[in-house]
Design a protein that fits this description.
It is elongated, with a radius of gyration of 47 Å. Strand 6 and strand 7 form a beta hairpin. By secondary structure, it is of the alpha+beta class. Helix content is 42%, strand content 19%. It has 4 domains: 121 residues, PAS domain (Beta-Lactamase), CATH 3.30.450.20; 111 residues, PAS domain (Beta-Lactamase, 2-Layer Sandwich), CATH 3.30.450; 201 residues, P-loop containing nucleotide triphosphate hydrolases (Rossmann fold); 69 residues, Orthogonal Bundle (Arc Repressor Mutant, subunit A), CATH 1.10.10.
Length: 606
C-alpha cells in the first residue's frame, strides 16, 4: 500500500477503487475521501454520496456510538485498529456485519496523509463468534479472558464498569496489572504455570479499579485447550464480594459490640442489684413493733400485684428497704431491681439517664448507653426522691409510664418496656400538686397504692433490735469482737428522738464501735445529747488555743487523732509489720486489709 501512496494521486485512486475488497480512505477528521468499487456494490453508496461524511453516518446507532466513543479515540492514540466490529446499513436498509482493520498512512516527512480502512464481511461462523462475543461482553457479570501468558484478550462490559476502565485501556495488558500487590506477588513468574494447571474455583483476589479502590473478588476459571491439550485461552468469572465482606465485617463487629454491651449490661445490672442490696442491709427488715407490722402487712398485700407503689416517709426511715421487700416478694423477684435517685440527675441528662442514648446523640456520647427503664425491663424500677424531678421533665416520665414505650436519645426506634414502678418521696406530694410543683396526673399514676414508712421514734423497741443488728454488722466488718449493749444504753437509745431515723442510728453505732476499746461500747461518745450512764474515757489533750476545760465527748478532730495515734502505737509495737502473728493487725484484732485501708486513709508513713 505504501507503493500505491508513492504513485500519482490519480493513479493511486484508480488502483484503490479496483481493490477487490470493501475499502475506504478517510481524512484527518474521519470523513470519507474515496471508497472501493466493492464498497459501492455492497453498500449502494457511491464515493460522491459519501465524501465529507463519516462512517457513523451510515452505521447503526450502536455501532456509531462505539465509533465515536471507542474506535476513533483509540485510532487517534495508536494509529491502528485491528478487526474491530462495526455494522453498516446499506442504501436499501440491509445491515452488514463487518470487521474493520484501519491503519494511518504518512508521507516521507511523517505527515499524516489519510487512513486506509479495509472491511471484511463476517461469515456465518464469524457471525456466530461475533454474537457470542457480544453476549459475552454484555453479560451482567465480571468476565475476562486471558491468553496462555495471562494477557487480557477480552472483558465484559460489567468488568469494565466495576473497575472503571475502557476496553482499549485493558486489552493486551497482563491481568496482574489490575491486582493489588498482595494478590499479584504470589503469581509473578508463575502465571503461565498456574494457567496451565487448569480450572480454579472461588479463589480470593483483590482487584484495583482505575480510581484506586480495591474490590475483593472470588475468581473461578475454565481453560480451553486444543487437540494437543495446549492452552488456547482461559475464561475467568469474578464475583465481587466487596460489599458482602464489608457487611460480614460490620456484622462481626456488631456481634462483638452486642456481646460487649450484653456483658456490660449484665455487669451494670449486677452492680445495680448489689448497690441496692448493700444500701438496704441485704434486704433484711428488722423489728416487730405494731407500726412496722402494719407496714409489712401492706407490703404483703401489694407485692404480688402489678400496681404502682408510692413509699412515703421521712429521710432515713428505710424506704429503699421497703422497695426491695416489695420487689423480692413479687413475681418479678428474679428480674432486676434498678434504682434511680431522681434528685441527682441533671436536667440535661434526664432523658439519657432514664431512656439511654445512641453514640453521637450529643457531645460526649461516645458509645451507646442503656437507660434505666431498659435495664429494669421485666423487673422493678425504684424512683427514689421522685418529688425532685423538675416539672418540665415530669411529662416525659408520665408518657413512658402510660404508654410503656420510649425512644433512646438520638434514636428513632420505639422500644417497648415492661416495668413495675415503685416510687419514694420524703415530700408531701399532695401539697406539691396543690402548689403546682408536681403534675397531678403523674401523682395519681405513681400513688396507686401508698405505703407509709413509720419514723424510728414511733417504732418502740425496734430501735434496740436495730442497734444490735448494726452493732453485729459493723463489728464483723471491722474485724472486732462484738460488745454487749447495756440496759442503760438501751434506755438512752429509746429516749433519743432520732430525727435522722434508721440511717442516723447506724451512723451512731458505727462511731461508737470506732471509739470503743475492749468490750466497752462507747455509745456515750457517739450518741448526741446522751446521758447513757457510762464512764467517759479520758479525752485527748485539747487542741492548741482551746481552754483546758474537759468534756465527756471528743471532737471529730480529736477522734481522728486518737485513732491515728492508736494505729501508730500498734505499728511501732509490731515493728511496722502489718500482717502475720504479732503484726499490727493481729495486735489490734482487725484484718490486715482493714488496717491497710486505715493506714492509707490516715496517710501514715514510716
Amino acid at each position: 500500500m505504501y507503493l500505491l501512496a508513492m504513485a500519482t494521486p490519480d493513479s493511486y485512486l484508480a488502483l484503490f477503487r479496483r481493490i477487490p475488497v470493501m475499502a475506504a480512505l478517510l481524512d484527518r477528521d474521519g470523513c470519507f475521501i474515496e471508497v472501493s468499487d466493492n464498497w459501492v456494490s455492497r453498500t449502494g453508496f457511491t464515493a460522491g454520496a459519501l465524501r465529507g461524511r463519516q462512517p457513523e453516518d451510515v452505521a447503526t446507532a450502536d455501532s456509531a456510538r462505539r465509533i465515536r466513543e471507542e474506535h476513533r479515540p483509540c485510532f487517534r492514540r495508536t494509529g491502528r485498529l485491528d478487526d474491530v466490529p462495526v455494522e453498516f446499513q446499506t442504501a436499501d436498509g440491509t445491515i452488514l456485519e463487518l470487521l474493520v482493520t484501519s491503519t494511518a498512512e504518512y508521507d516521507e516527512a511523517g505527515l499524516f496523509l489519510h487512513s486506509l480502512s479495509v472491511f471484511t464481511e463476517l461469515s456465518d461462523r464469524a457471525r456466530l463468534e461475533r454474537r457470542y462475543r457480544d453476549l459475552y461482553q454484555a453479560t451482567p457479570a465480571m468476565l475476562h479472558t486471558i491468553d496462555p501468558e495471562g494477557r487480557l484478550t477480552d472483558v465484559s462490559d460489567h468488568w469494565l464498569e466495576k473497575l472503571g476502565y475502557t476496553r482499549n485501556e485493558v486489552l493486551g495488558r497482563s491481568i496482574l496489572e489490575f491486582m493489588t500487590d498482595a494478590s499479584s506477588a504470589p503469581l509473578v513468574g508463575r502465571l503461565r504455570e498456574i494457567i496451565n494447571a487448569g480450572d480454579i474455583r472461588n479463589v480470593p483476589r483483590q482487584m484495583v479499579s482505575r480510581s484506586g479502590d480495591v474490590r475483593e473478588v472470588l475468581l473461578s476459571s475454565h481453560t480451553e485447550r486444543d487437540a494437543r491439550q495446549a492452552v488456547v485461552r482461559t475464561l475467568v468469572a469474578s464475583k465481587d464480594v466487596t460489599e458482602r465482606n464489608r457487611a460480614e465485617a460490620r456484622l462481626k463487629e456488631a456481634y462483638g459490640e452486642i456481646a460487649r454491651l450484653k456483658e456490660e449490661l449484665e455487669r451494670e445490672r449486677d452492680y445495680l442489684r448489689e448497690e441496692v442490696r448493700v444500701s438496704m442491709n441485704f434486704g433484711r427488715i428488722v423489728g416487730g413493733s405494731p407500726a412496722l407490722l402494719a407496714m409489712l402487712a401492706r407490703i404483703e398485700a401489694v407485692a404480688d400485684t402489678p400496681a404502682s407503689v408510692l413509699i412515703l416517709g421521712e429521710t432515713g426511715t428505710g424506704k429503699e428497704l421497703v422497695a426491695h421487700a416489695i420487689h423480692t416478694r413479687s413475681s418479678r423477684a428474679d428480674a432486676p431491681l434498678v434504682k434511680v435517685n431522681c434528685a441527682s440527675i441533671p436536667d440535661e441528662l434526664f432523658e439519657s439517664e432514664f431512656f439511654g442514648h445512641v453514640r453521637g446523640a450529643f457531645t460526649g456520647a461516645h458509645r451507646d448507653r442503656v437507660g434505666r427503664f431498659q435495664l429494669a425491663d421485666g423487673g422493678t424500677l425504684f424512683l427514689d426522691e421522685v418529688g425532685e424531678i423538675p416539672l418540665s421533665l415530669q411529662g416525659k416520665l408520665l408518657r413512658v409510664l402510660q404508654e410503656k414505650e420510649f425512644e433512646r436519645v438520638g434514636d428513632e426506634t420505639t422500644r417497648m418496656v415492661d416495668v413495675r414502678v415503685v416510687a419514694a418521696s420524703n415530700k408531701d406530694l399532695e401539697k406539691a400538686v396543690e402548689a403546682g410543683e408536681f403534675r397531678e396526673d403523674l401523682y395519681y399514676r405513681l400513688s396507686v397504692f401508698p405505703v407509709q414508712v413509720p419514723p424510728l421514734r414511733r417504732r418502740g423497741d425496734d430501735v434496740v433490735q436495730l442497734a444490735v443488728h448494726f452493732l453485729q454488722q459493723v463489728c464483723r466488718e471491722f474485724g472486732r469482737s462484738c460488745p454487749t449493749i447495756t440496759q442503760a444504753q438501751a434506755d438512752a437509745l429509746r429516749r433519743y428522738p432520732w430525727p435522722g431515723n434508721v440511717r442516723e442510728l447506724k451512723n451512731v453505732i458505727e462511731r461508737a464501735v470506732i471509739l470503743s476499746t475492749g468490750d466497752n461500747l462507747r455509745l456515750d461518745l457517739s450518741l448526741p445529747e446522751a446521758q447513757v450512764g457510762v464512764s467517759v474515757a479520758p479525752a485527748a489533750a485539747p487542741p492548741a488555743g482551746a481552754t483546758g476545760e474537759t468534756h465527756p465527748f471528743l471532737t471529730e478532730i480529736q477522734m481522728r487523732d486518737q485513732q491515728r495515734n492508736n494505729l501508730l502505737a500498734a505499728l511501732e509495737a509490731a515493728g511496722w509489720r502489718v500482717a502475720g502473728k504479732g503484726g499490727a493487725a493481729d495486735l489490734l484484732g482487725i484484718r490486715p486489709s482493714t488496717l491497710a485501708d486505715r493506714i492509707k486513709s490516715f496517710q501514715i508513713r514510716r
